[in-house]
Specification:
By secondary structure, this protein is mainly beta. The chain has a single domain, classed as TolB, C-terminal domain (Neuraminidase, 6 Propeller), CATH 2.120.10.30. It contains one helix and 20 strands. The strands form five sheets. A four-stranded antiparallel β-sheet has the order 1-20-19-18, with no helix packed on it. It has a four-stranded antiparallel β-sheet with strand order 2-3-4-5, with no helix packed on it. A hairpin with a 2-residue loop joins strand 18 and strand 19.
Length: about 290
């Protein structure tokens, strides 16, 4: 989804071995970042990247799909070309972008299943929709009763699909019990556990890695001035207590990172992140790429 007397020589050796083991915990290191300057790109929030890292699909919080190709050199992103720019369609077949009243268009999370099904989570009118392809109308999934209980603009930020096709969605803000893990079971959502929040971070993205582990993207605004970002990992989504932090950015190092995609090539496991520029021309849309180091 980071050992001087003869009496205590053994203890010193054991401590050294223990500390070495700690130092070898998995971490994510930033390998590159790329600022995408394009007048058509506004408010990217969800992201998927192909298994070879060559192509991507992202969604905007104004209700659009954007598919494209990364231009890479030595494995690093050096550019991006748009191949498709399509409206997300509501269950009536009309673009959600046309419905800013009530903000039906606020698409935040994207997951693409192995069978090609698209899943999109929305805020404000909190819901998850299913799409057999980007060109067709969405299928509405019956809401969990608690979807409407979150504060406005703090609702379903993330959606993820595991290798078995099971769908999960997550709100931006935790409840008193933590971040609920909503699992789609047939036609209904069930709360399968809670992820403990820490240090004031909100949950804004999720993606399963190729080994089935769940990677979570989190961020917070420090003193209203600096964005700080973090990636945590659940080895098993059914055991949310077993969670580890793989990467935490410095304050202000990046902007509002909201989309996450996990993939793997011959270089190892990669995590690609994308920032939401919040519709502000002075805030960049940035891809940040990290690599897992053990």
């Amino acid at each position: 989804m980071i050992q001087y007397s003869a009496m205590n020589v053994g203890g010193v050796i054991a401590a050294a071995w223990f500390l070495t083991g700690m130092a070898q915990a998995d971490t994510l290191n930033v390998v590159s970042s790329f600022v995408w300057e394009h007048e058509a790109i506004v408010g990217l929030s969800g992201l998927e990247v192909s298994d070879d890292g060559a192509t991507f699909v992202t969604i905007s919080d104004r209700g659009w799909y954007i598919a494209g190709e990364f231009l890479r050199a030595e494995g690093e992103i050096k550019g991006a070309d748009i191949q498709e720019h399509l409206p997300i369609l509501g269950q009536d077949g009309l673009p959600v972008a046309a419905r800013r009243i009530g903000d039906w268009s606020d698409a935040e999370g994207l997951a693409i299943a192995q069978n090609g099904t698209f899943w999109v989570s929305f805020e404000r009118w909190a819901r998850v929709s299913q799409f057999t392809s980007p060109e067709v109308a969405g299928t509405w999934i019956r809401d969990h009763p608690t979807f409407q209980q979150y504060d406005d603009n703090r609702q379903l930020e993330a959606v993820a699909v595991d290798a078995n096709g099971t769908v999960y969605t997550f709100p931006e803000n935790p409840t008193d019990d933590g971040f609920p893990i909503y699992q789609l079971n047939g036609a209904d959502w069930e709360v399968r556990g809670h992820i403990a929040p820490s240090d004031g971070f909100a949950l804004v993205g999720a993606d399963f890695g190729p080994d089935g582990q769940l990677f979570l993207l989190e961020r917070k605004l420090v003193l209203g001035l600096w964005w700080q970002n973090r990636v945590r990992r659940l080895e098993d989504v059914t055991n949310p207590d077993d969670i580890e932090t793989l990467w935490t950015s410095k304050r202000g190092a990046y902007d509002n990172l909201e989309g996450i995609a996990v993939w793997q090539d011959q270089r190892g496991l990669r995590v690609t992140l994308v920032s939401d520029n919040n519709g502000d021309k002075d805030e960049p849309t940035t891809f940040v790429e990290l690599q897992l180091v053990d």
